[in-house]
Specification:
Layout lengths: L8 H24 L11 H4 L1 E7 L14 H10 L6 E5 L9 E6 L4 H15 L8 E5 L1 H29 L2 H28 L6 H31 L5 H33 L2 H36 L2 E4 L2 E4 L5
Antiparallel strand pairs: 1-3, 1-4, 2-3, 5-6
Helix pairs in contact: 1-6, 3-4, 5-6, 5-7, 6-7, 6-9, 7-8, 7-9, 8-9
Length: about 325
């Protein structure tokens, strides 16, 4: 199979633009939503509050015979003055039965937590005290996490620009960053949509996922760019579109194999890693897929367009070579 990616580059750009636009629209809607007030639905890591997890005691006869009705849980929370809380029914890791309740809400003191637990016990069944969990996070910590994560992303982008500019040329670096921004926007946009539709929240692990995605994506892009540079050295008079197409095809097998084997591990974490790692794995699955796509169809085709339109001359072994030759 041989791809001619530059012949259909408008299609690749249209697909990416549509996904990114949908994500941006979702972020705007999410920001205006009074219960979210952010581009993505934030977890307690960022906004602060209390996380409560209750699990029914199924050793007691008849305690777990009926499934938990989330509407009943919401009614109980509303009577406790917690109507704007985020509520989920969660499954037991060992049995898969949905006998747990996860509630994210404002800061609660000990008395408020006890009142909520007692009210829920009356409606859905007795809870196992050994499995109940309570966590509190302050808003100051959330701001620090967000600031640190944003700085880490900016520093990583700056480092990538410096490295690629030194190893290749500035235009290589610019389009590699465009591809990375493409991956970040697609991942964030899809999570924004999930936040509106499914109530999916982002936590501190989401920032870690974005940093991991940038590293994975730029690795594929560098491999393709390296092949483009080597081909320019040996065939300086070929059209840049042909050189880029050949470079992509020569590295395509490696990109597919690397992405596929990585996905196997990520899907295993997503399916069996538990609630804590589920969204982290999902972010990596989305980001790595977008990264493999952008390395092949975005970074490479944008470089081709730039060289064609500007008659950019590539410096190879101290000589200037017109990469638009043959067009």
């Amino acid at each position: 199979m041989k791809l001619s990616i530059n012949k259909s580059r408008s299609l690749w750009w249209a697909i990416s633009s549509a996904i990114i636009l949908a994500g941006i629209i979702s972020m705007v809607i999410s920001w205006q939503n009074p219960s979210i007030k952010a581009p993505l639905r934030p977890s307690l890591d960022f906004v602060g509050g209390t996380r409560l997890q209750f699990e029914r005691d199924c050793t007691k006869p008849g305690n777990c015979d009926q499934p938990i009705d989330i509407n009943v849980v919401r009614e109980v929370a509303k009577t406790q003055g917690l109507g704007d809380s985020s509520i989920q029914i969660i499954a037991d890791r060992s049995t898969g039965a949905e006998n747990g309740i996860l509630i994210r809400t404002k800061n609660l003191d000990t008395e408020q937590r006890t009142n909520l637990q007692n009210a829920l016990s009356e409606k859905v069944g007795t809870f196992d005290q050994q499995k109940n969990q309570f966590d509190s996070v302050g808003p100051t910590l959330g701001r620090e996490l967000f600031t640190s994560g944003a700085i880490a992303l900016i520093v990583s982008f700056a480092g990538i620009i410096v490295y690629l500019s030194f190893r290749f040329q500035l235009d290589y670096a610019v389009f590699a960053i465009v591809a990375l921004l493409h991956d970040v926007f697609i991942t964030a946009g899809i999570f924004s949509i999930f936040g509106l539709v499914l109530g999916t929240e982002v936590d501190s692990l989401f920032i870690v996922a974005l940093l991991t995605i940038t590293g994975f994506s730029v690795n594929d892009t560098v491999v393709i760019y390296d092949r483009i540079r080597e081909t320019l050295k040996t065939n300086p008079n070929r059209a840049i579109a042909e050189i880029v197409d050949d470079a992509v095809n020569q590295t395509l097998g490696r990109s597919i194999n690397t992405t596929f084997t990585t996905m196997l591990s990520l899907f295993a974490i997503f399916l069996f890693g538990g609630e804590t790692l589920k969204n982290f794995a999902l972010a990596l699955i989305i980001g790595f897929t977008a990264g493999a796509y952008s390395s092949i169809f975005i970074a490479s085709t944008l470089l081709t367009l730039w060289r064609e339109r500007n008659g950019q001359r590539a410096v190879v072994s101290g000589e200037s070579i017109d990469t638009s030759a043959g067009n």
